[in-house]
Amino acid sequence: MEKAGFSAIADAEVIRHSNLVGKMALGSVWRWEHFRKFNGVHCKIDEWEVPNIMTDEGINYILDAALSGLTPITTWYCTVFENDYTPLATNTYATPGYTECTAYDEATRPQWSEAGVSSKVITNSASKATFTFNATKTIYGGALVGGGSAPTTKADTAGGGKLICSVQFTSGSKSVVSTDVLKVTVTVTGSNVT
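The structure corresponding to this sequence follows.
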């Protein structure tokens, strides 16, 4: 004889399972390395990792480029931001929510130079994005952007690009001074949801 409530629990489990079949999780982890110059030599003074939030715009772009014939964006860029902002899924390239920091020596946004996909992972660990600061700033996080008419331009929001993901430091802000360097590794991973 069936126990009371068992059928409802079994039905709920079937529904839950059917909702997960064929789904994929996509996210990234950002590794930050902070270097400061002592006696003319840059020394690592801190290192930390934080997971990101994938934006709706980023997820839609990935699906569109992979499955619906959208011309893919082939070059992506890292940014850093200088306001205490918690990224949202609804943020876009045009309205990122954060204030992008431009106080670094590199003439353009550093490129995210990935090395192709392997085992459902893509990363720029072999060629980290580098920011060499030229002023005292407080940095709160970063983002991955690309596409549009001006993706290399610092603080551009009008070029029609895409904001794939953004991340806020979970351990609080990081203070940088002139000649400090932040190196950024962004590793994007896909996995099946079971």
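Helices lie at 6-20, 56-67.
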